[in-house]
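User: Before I run my own analysis I want an independent prediction to cross-check against. Here's the chain; please return only the structure tokens and, at the end, one sentence I can use as a sanity check.
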Amino acid sequence: MCYNIKEYIFFSNEELLGAAVEEESEKREDLVIGRNAVLELLKTGREIDKLYVKRGDRVGSIKAIVAIAMSRGIPVIEVDSGRLDKITGGTNHQGVAVLTPVVGYASLEDIFTRADTRSEKPFIVIADGIEDPHNLGALIRSAEGAGAHGVIIGKRHAVGLTGTVGKASAGAVQHIPIVKVTNIAQTIDELKERGIWIFAAEPGGVPYYKADMRGAAAFVFGSEGAGISRLVLEKSDFRVSIPMYGKVTSLNVSAAAAVILCEAARQNRDM
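Assistant: Structure tokens:
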């Protein structure tokens, strides 16, 4: 739940989820710590995924830091001092830290350009609210391996391109455009206007091997707990699923993505 505190917008601890909690460990290259370092980084205009601030600290340069972040649309996340200590690996953080992507984000147009360059129909992957960095990294690895032209991720309630994501992708983040958007539902509308069919990986859908996934298409995979958001699901053209025959009723999101994306790639190469 997002809520207002004075003139700023913050997210509650519960909404940090894997995007922050999983990353609590040793000092990381994708983390910039300390008031002066963070303030100067914000001034450069460099891409930033999230700003962490210590709860209740709104004096001096912290107020300026938060104001700049908000003006740039950067999510500001309040955490208690103990949590921030863990995120920063015990470094003297001075109440503030920012998380930066390990590689630069691409634009939606970059995905279409990549498809045109290969003389292929657009093949796109959408990660809707995936919060675990290992899952996102593995999904990106599967997408790149299947020949997808790009991956779209959400700006909020989802993990960005952290160091852990990069490692879990086995380097795939360096070889495929990753686009970060504010609103996935709106982005889907834009994709549909450009002739892209939207396939949602959802229990109860058509078995993936029976679905016709040829042509320009985007494949949506939801978060580990909630799955695909309601609005995104409503905007999807087709729903596909992976039949399960054992006691376990579902696959990990990155494993499910590998199965469906490889079948989509096979169908398009057999055309």
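Sanity check: The chain has two domains: 2-99, 108-269.
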